[in-house]
Amino acid sequence: xxxxxxxxxxxxxxxxxxxxxxxxxxxxxxxxxxxxxxxxxxxxxxxxxxxxxxxxxxxxxxxxxxxxxxxxxxxxxxxxxxxxxxxxxxxxxxxxxxxxxxxxxxxxxxxxxxxxxxxxxxxxxxxxxxxxxxxxxxxxxxxxxxxxxxxxxxxxxxxxxxxxxxxxxxxxxxxxxxxxxxxxxxxxxxxxxxxxxxxxxxxxxxxxxxxxxxxxxxxxxxxxxxxxxxxxxxxxxxxxxxxxxxxxxxxxxxxxxxxxxxxxxxxxxxxxxxxxxxxxxxxxxxxxxxxxxxxxxxxxxxxxxxxxxxxxxxxxxxxxxxxxxxxxxxxxxxxxxxxxxxxxxxxxxxxxxxxxxxxxxxxxxxxxxxxxxxxxxxxxxxxxxxxxxxxxxxxxxxxxxxxxxxxxxxxxxxxxxxxxxxxxxxxxxxxxxxxxxxxxxxxxxxxxxxxxxxxxxxxxxxxxxxxxxxxxxxxxxxxxxxxxxxxxxxxxxxxxxxxxxxxxxxxxxxxxxxxxxxxxxxxxxxxxxxxxxxxxxxxxxxxxxxxxxxxxxxxxxxxxxxxxxxxxxxxxxxxxxxxxxxxxxxxxxxxxxxxxxxxxxxxxxxxxxxxxxxxxxxxxxxxxxxxxxxxxxxxxxxxxxxxxxxxxxxxxxxxxxxxxxxxxxxxxxxxxxxxxxxxxxxxxxxxxxxxxxxxxxxxxxxxxxxxxxx
Length: 710
Prior knowledge:
This protein is α/β, with parallel strands linked by helices and 710 residues long.
């Protein structure tokens, strides 16, 4: 009982429900391991008793929690305070805003120019002075009630940037391609946004993990996305440097042709090797006075975060990319040894800092191109759910991460063995102790050049499944986060950036989470194939034969969809629509041994579901009866999305050109399937450069359905 109570006090759930009416209890060993990751010893009954006593003593003396939140126009959430306690607030700009005296009933009398219910938005310092002499300070986060709503209704593309090569890029899609796509689609097709995969900095090395969802750092973008020729210093190269750049450009052309003409895979490592050498040459070109001033401003603005990131990159060049194996002193970013080596590595730190600046500038140019093309939103960046355990963020912010833990998902009907994503979680206690500074800083960086932000696994704002290192995902436990505080930080930073927010809320979502997100204005994600009513249904198909999907819930009519969502037909983790329509998705999973049932049964189920959809599309007047033409059906399902009230409608770019290959096939490794390495291709499997995509008859015909000429 004591250990369970201790777990509850630290936000650890000792049981979970993988399905309605079924409860699974977390093992004692898991509870002990998770508590240890939070700095609490629960290994013995004596240790549990001491930990409970220490918690009670700390809670009894504390006047304030480390972080307090308030919504604009409302008083902050405060614990009961002794009668006569004085509360004062110093704003983030240093202004003393006023004070209240608590009367012991939870109410206060305003004393000074501003009451606590009328504080400005921001991250302020709250002080409590009790009559018994106790004093406490807390961060007070005052946030808008909701994030900004997207302007009007819009449609746009969902793009994996690396997959969209042009005839100018160096073997993978880059920020120049992104700017071109945004400018063309905004002006020509009337699109309102381009949603991207995460552009976070990867862990360098050969081979680099190609997944954009396991980055080294989420705080800075990856310079592999740079368009070399668009850097101003490129025009000032001369002599041997110019000749070498020309050689590198020619070799990059060979990489590009291997992908576009010979069917090769995108080789991120080979692209980076060429770009890195080119960037070394470009960084040797002196900055002009104006460029130097802009770079110095960037360094000052980014501060210690950039210095840490660049230092990790410089140290990784010497000692490898896993900081946990570095010489002892260098594992601590604040140690005297690290301070000394920072001084010796100033040139390399400056090199990596400059790459971050170059990338930031080209991201700004891409967003500017999107807005100038008339896009009301522009770029929609993607925030991955976590970072690699050996990367730059975990080195620089060790206190914020739970060592020895990985996030994932518990067992469910689709994954009976659960999932382990290999990403260390943030410690909720550390976030609160810093006023959620790591999250605030992260959001501020991502929203610099964005009209909206997609958040992967947005349910992580409320709880995450923690798996102790070395144990199977079944041996995990849910750890609770302060959802109100997390969403307040999100609302504040999104408000300051004027950006909308989209939450990826697919899969298992605990009750009340979607409602809480909707209340704060966070759009959900609705995928066509999953929008169904899970009530009872008839066990026979239209012909009276037993249905292979008799338990499949009813397809929702367009008017039954929620309005506060990004509506799509498919995603990067699902089959392209053409593959679903032709059965190629089942064939691919059968070849790889990924089917949960015999292939014939899976094909029968897929065929039944497609007949259901054809009937629904015909019933809504979106598809002529008997029409089975692939392109016509792709148009029809997108017209279906238009009938919904969804605020944003996303078109998976490969769908628009008839691509049949998924960009990522969950459950496979890189040796089984080329996840995250495929270029956009046409129905015949031949890669399509950006120039071919923008001239695609099929793409233009589909987009006319979404934005008919006026």
